Every structure is written in structure tokens, then in C-alpha cells.
């Protein structure tokens, strides 16, 4: 079930719709839909992710979304977030400035392995492992719509000679962006 969930998440995020990988060509994922339809800001990251490059993303948010900007979140891959933090450190800017970059520690004092998240310009930065590297998305969480059909068919087959169990799952699901211009800058 964990592998099936990971595959669904990978397809929903990175689906291409055509060509390339046979699995990812099943349908268009959120990243592809946002890149095709949304007004994206062009950000220069030749020097790595910087506070200034992310500020240009925030500044490019259309005017009608600025009043409710506090409901938005940054979404980025693990490598992109690490690149951003490493770039801040290499520039000597790792002294997380309240209001610009904040380190948020959940559930009390820092303990090895405790969850740590970051806020940039007061907006949460969410780590999404399946996101492509060097891609940051700024959108409302409820802008992404997933629809699942109730009928899920599961077939289990045991292969005695190989001592393996093969599961085949049939499921119908779809996804859409509620409003294309509310995502991916």
C-alpha cells in the first residue's frame, strides 16, 4: 500500500501526459498543468536559490491574490530547500531573520529528529520529496483538486515458484487546478 500511495503521488505531481516514461505519460500532473497554464515568473537561479529570487516569486503574485496571500504556501523538493538553505549559509545570511526566513521548530525545544519547517516572508515552505529539483511552487493548498472514484479493484496473485505476491490495483482518479492563475510563480 505504501508503494501504491507513492506511485499515485508521483503520478499526480510529475505526470507528463505524453511521451517519455510510460508510467508518467498516463496523465498530466500538477506541475505540468501549472507550467502549461499558469503565469509563471521567470527567476534567475544561476547563483542558487536566494531570498531575492523567492521575493520575485512573491512579488509576481497577481494583485487579486495579494489580499489572501497568507493562505499560500511554498512547495519545493528536498534538494531545492537544501540548496536554498546552503546558499543562505554560503552567503553568510543563515541568521534567519524574523519576517524574512524563520526556522519553525514543532513541539518544543529542538531534539534530534524533530520536525523542522521554514517560513519565508511569513509563508510556510513545504517539503514535497517528489517535486522536481529547481522548481518552487507558490499556491493555495486547496487550489489542487483530487478526485477518486469509489470503486477500487484489487487483485492478488501468488507465484509459488518465485515465492512472490503480485498485486494489481485498478483505480480511477483525476486531478485539476481550481484556478490556474493561482499557482506556480
Distance between the termini: 33 Å
Oligomer: single chain
Q: Helix share of residues?
A: 25-40%
Helix count equals: 5
Instruction: Look at the helices and sheets and give the structural class.
Output: alpha+beta
Anisotropy-based shape: elongated
Can you write the helix and strand succession as a string? HHHHEHEEEEEEEE
Report mean pLDDT, rounded to a whole number. 75
Described by strand count, sense and barrel closure, the largest sheet is: 5 strands, mixed
Tell me what you see in this structure.
With 185 residues, this protein is of the alpha+beta class. 25% of the residues lie in helices and 25% in strands. It has helices spanning 2-14, 30-37, 51-59, 63-66, 78-90, and strands at residues 73-76, 101-105, 116-120, 123-127, 136-139, 144-148, 153-159, 164-170, 173-177. The strands form three sheets. Strands 2-3-4-1-5 form a five-stranded mixed beta sheet. A hairpin with a 4-residue loop joins strand 7 (153-159) and strand 8. The protein starts with a helix and ends in an 8-residue tail after the last strand.
Amino acid at each position: 500500500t505504501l508503494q501504491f500511495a507513492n506511485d499515485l503521488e508521483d503520478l499526480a505531481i510529475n505526470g507528463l501526459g505524453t511521451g517519455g516514461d510510460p508510467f508518467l505519460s498516463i496523465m498530466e500532473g500538477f506541475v505540468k498543468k501549472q507550467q502549461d497554464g499558469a503565469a509563471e515568473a521567470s527567476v534567475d537561479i544561476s547563483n542558487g536559490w536566494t531570498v531575492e529570487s523567492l521575493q520575485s516569486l512573491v512579488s509576481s503574485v497577481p494583485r487579486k491574490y495579494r489580499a489572501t496571500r497568507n493562505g499560500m504556501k511554498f512547495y519545493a523538493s528536498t534538494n531545492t530547500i537544501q540548496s536554498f538553505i546552503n546558499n543562505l549559509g554560503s552567503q553568510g545570511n543563515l541568521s534567519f531573520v524574523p519576517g524574512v526566513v524563520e526556522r519553525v521548530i514543532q513541539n518544543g525545544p529542538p531534539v534530534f529528529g524533530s520536525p523542522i519547517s521554514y517560513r519565508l516572508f511569513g509563508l510556510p515552505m513545504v517539503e514535497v520529496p517528489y517535486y522536481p529539483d529547481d522548481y518552487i511552487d507558490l499556491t493555495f493548498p486547496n487550489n489542487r483538486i483530487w478526485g477518486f472514484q469509489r470503486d477500487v479493484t484489487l487483485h492478488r496473485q501468488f507465484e509459488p515458484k518465485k515465492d512472490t505476491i503480485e498485486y494489481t490495483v485498478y483505480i480511477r482518479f483525476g486531478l485539476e487546478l481550481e484556478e490556474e492563475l493561482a499557482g506556480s510563480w
